[in-house]
Write a structure and sequence with these properties.
By secondary structure, the chain is an alpha/beta fold. The chain contains 23 helices and 27 strands. It has a seven-stranded parallel beta sheet. β4, α7 (164-179) and β5 form a beta-alpha-beta unit. The chain is globular, with a radius of gyration of 26 Å.
Length: 800
């Protein structure tokens, strides 16, 4: 037996043996990729006759067994018909469920962030792991660790929100659930993205320049990556499309090697975001040829090129001969790919598990978790006069607006329904596929601002493929079957087609209660208002939707607003006029049922905003953890010329703050106690928050623990999330939530860019939102200490 085929040998020994047998071309094949998107299984002998290291199988096959057949034929060819028999690492997106036919689709990442529930994120990831493993896909291009602080950026919907502590906790739970901490050979390689700072680009435009300091980069944007590396053994990282400090991230040795590997301790493989090596040539223009771009990327520490060879080709042999790159640098990238494959057990089991596949798709456990996550994500922004929950005795209900009769509204980019929308819309645009295919959907508009209507074919296909999904009006009708539920669209997603407003107003006028849906659509291309590459200068309701809302308000009917979007609600008229407002994001397959359950009180709303909701784009960036002296938190503070409102023409205060979310019951925070009021730089303090449900309903509260550094050697955030805990509290019950806060979690970068736990006073603050602090207590760290940032605490853990 060849040593690399011996499972009893160590990974390093197997890698060394295999690499000694590989030709230059076989090595290059391992650091390149093939992407296919056609419904048919291609002839792999034609496209990758000598093998391929990585495959993106964005197939649009009609069922999962066909996709398993795709994986089986691919791996059979590679293992049995190529010289060395090296299987491919097949990848797909997975942030809200594996992106293939029949896989479960969970709430989007921004909705997951609203749950503040890492435990359920871990359970979701474990289910995704089983489905991916069964179909033969072993790498997930997820989770997204971008910190979203600019709502103009369309990809905010893919993130867990604006806060690095929340993102670190949620993302680490995802990574641990996906990779299988007990048996890596049964796990999926997580690939965190987009490294790094991708969510704060200039002008809110995707792929642009990152305007972020070196300090903020490490303290804020690297924090989730570091947590996943240190706690979860993160196997993969995908680079950002952006440039930073004059360098494209894709070819920055400072970022990909010196920071990521040397400083942060990452040992896995770095893969390129799709066509990011192309961008080194155009538009960044720091290389004149693709081979030169490939050389720069490899030398920087980027191991694999997706989605097809452009810079990582056999032309690199000439670059080696010219002395532009040494073979050891190429070998290093190959070694990292092979190490991942051996660690995953691909050489022993590269094939799909068809019998397992039939058992893991749409199980009762998955459906129950899906519904629970959707219900937890629904966020009650406002509830004046206790309009909600609605009475089950209501006779006539009008459900109106663009999302009233749509299931497409429940799904975000990088979910299978959104991919269907993209591919089907692309076909309707007359864009054909070039075998084996590459998904590039350019947004072509007949005029600036044009958003095309969603094809009825798309809605029909999604309803057929996802029978669990219920349009909102139907979910409501099923929840209260004795009520008469009528539906009218009124206006479209883009707010440009107002031809149905009169019908919708007539339907609403005849109802006892009106449920009006507002907001845009998440996806790709000119059929969407938010998504990848779908950025905007206006974060308000799309088009004339505010005018529609004003007309509905003019009926003076009891009205509930449900906002569907990838951005938070940023409309002052709606926020100030309507009594009841729910933020729905994209809730996945069971979104309709979850919303109906919340509307009628079968579920007490408990979602919390993972982002700050700006009043308008002029406030951006706006987030709760602004450094002292900056933004709305500094308005009215000491200064020679100052305006207490912030702006001369408007307030600087946001519409809704981070962590905000109401309930049908009330919670009182009774006390905040500490185990000690003085600790060392390597110590910890136990923090106990006692709260009581003073209302008449059972409900979940999300206890949020923040900290403020009273006086520091560097400018620190005014408020910083330390930890959080979702806790179920029965009516009139009193409960205690106990956190363990390590001093190292309060570390920051000193003037010399060392991680420092600094002596001084810190104030802990507990409450139900960043702007609703109920209890405070202080402690002192008595000594300062420089620490290893890789081993610091990233979020406060709770003690049961």
């Amino acid at each position: 037996m060849k040593t690399y085929r011996d499972p009893s040998a160590s990974v390093d020994v197997r890698v060394n043996d295999l690499m000694a047998r590989m030709s230059f071309e076989q090595k290059i094949d391992q650091i390149t990729c093939l992407v296919t998107i056609t419904p048919d299984i291609p002839d792999f002998r034609q496209y990758v006759p000598n093998g391929i290291g990585n495959v993106g199988a964005f197939t649009v096959a009609s069922d999962a067994q066909q996709i398993a057949e795709y994986a089986y034929r691919l791996q059979t060819f590679l293992v049995e018909e190529t010289q060395l028999g090296i299987p491919a690492l097949i990848h797909c997106e997975a942030a809200a469920g594996a992106q293939f036919t029949e896989a479960n689709v969970f709430p989007s990442a921004i909705a997951q962030g609203s749950t503040f529930d890492p435990e359920k994120i871990g359970r979701m990831a474990a289910l995704i792991k089983e489905q991916m493993y069964a179909v033969g896909f072993r790498q997930a291009l997820s989770p997204v660790f971008d910190i979203a602080r600019d709502a103009r950026w369309g990809r905010i919907t893919e993130t867990y929100g604006e806060d690095p502590t929340l993102t670190a906790a949620m993302g680490s739970a995802f990574v641990r659930g996906l990779q299988d901490m007990h048996d890596r050979t049964r796990g999926i390689a997580a690939t965190a993205k987009h490294y790094v700072g991708h969510g704060v680009t200039e002008g809110g435009l995707n792929m642009g320049r990152n305007l972020v300091t070196e300090r903020e980069l490490e303290e804020v944007h690297c924090k989730p990556f570091q947590a996943a590396i240190s706690e979860g053994g993160l196997m993969g990282v995908m680079n950002s499309y952006c440039s930073m400090n004059g360098e494209p991230v894709a070819c920055s040795r400072k970022l990909l090697t010196e920071l990521l590997r040397d400083r942060m301790g990452f040992t896995g493989m770095v893969v390129s975001d799709y066509i990011s090596i192309d961008r080194i040539v155009d538009p960044f223009c720091v290389a004149s040829t693709y081979t030169q771009a490939g050389v720069k990327a490899l030398k920087a520490g980027l191991d694999v090129e997706y989605p097809r060879p452009k810079g990582y080709t056999y032309e690199l042999r000439s670059a080696v001969e010219r002395g532009e790159i040494d073979i050891q640098t190429i070998d290093q990238a190959v070694r990292r790919v092979l190490t991942a494959k051996f660690a995953l057990g691909l050489f022993e089991q590269p094939y799909p598990d068809r019998e397992m596949l039939s058992r893991v798709l749409h199980t009762q456990a998955a459906d129950e978790l899906n519904f629970a996550m959707a219900a937890e994500a629904v966020t009650l922004l406002k509830n004046e006069r206790n309009l909600l929950p609605l009475s089950r005795q209501v006779a006539k209900i009008a459900v109106i607006g663009p999302h009233a009769d749509s299931v497409r509204s429940y799904f975000a980019p990088f979910s299978y329904p959104a991919a269907l929308d993209m591919t089907m819309s692309r076909e309707e645009d007359g864009q054909g596929w070039e075998e084996p295919g590459l998904i590039i959907y350019d947004i072509t508009q007949q005029y600036v601002g044009q958003i095309r209507e969603t094809s009825p074919r798309v809605e029909k296909r999604i309803r057929n493929d996802f029978p669990n999904a219920r349009p909102l009006w139907r979910a409501i009708a099923e929840r209260v079957p004795q009520a008469k539920v009528t539906v009218a669209k009124g206006i479209n997603y883009a707010g440009t087609d107002m031809g149905g407003i009169d019908e919708a107003l007539a339907v609403a006028a005849d109802a006892d209660v009106v449920i009006v849906t507002l907001g845009g659509k998440n996806g790709w291309g000119a059929t969407s208002t938010v998504g990848e590459g779908v950025d905007a200068t206006d974060i308000d309701l799309p088009g004339a939707q505010e005018s529609f809302a004003r007309a509905v308000f003019g009926l003076h009917k009891p009205t509930v607003v449900i906002h569907f979007d990838g951005r938070p609600l940023s409309n002052e008229y709606v926020a100030s006029h309507f009594d009841a407002i729910l933020e729905a994001w994209q809730l996945g397959e069971f979104g309709g049922q979850a919303l109906a359950a919340v509307l009628f009180g079968d579920v007490n709303p408990s979602g919390r905003l993972p982002v700050t909701a700006a009043r308008n784009a002029g406030q951006l960036p706006v987030y709760y953890a602004l450094p002292r002296g900056s933004g709305y938190v500094s308005a009215g503070h000491t200064g020679m010329i100052r305006n207490a409102n912030g702006y001369i023409n408007d307030t600087a205060k946001p519409l809704f703050c981070f962590g905000h979310g109401l309930s049908y019951t009330r919670f009182a925070y009774l006390s905040l106690t500490l185990s000690t009021h003085e600790l060392s730089a390597d110590g910890r303090v136990t923090v106990t928050v006692t709260l009581q449900n003073t209302g008449e309903r059972d409900g979940d509260e999300v206890v949020q623990l923040y900290a403020t550094d009273t006086v520091a050697s560097m400018v620190r955030p005014t408020l910083e999330l330390l930890g959080f805990k979702r806790v179920a509290v029965r009516a009139k019950e009193t409960v205690a939530v106990t956190f363990e806060v390590e001093a190292s979690q309060l570390a920051f970068l000193d003037v010399n860019m060392n991680w420092l736990v600094e002596a001084g006073e810190y104030v802990l603050k507990a409450g139900g939102a960043s702007d609703r602090i109920e209890q405070t207590a202080a402690f002192v760290i008595r000594d300062s200490k420089v620490i290893d940032g890789r081993s610091r605490a990233f979020y406060a853990r709770t003690i049961d």
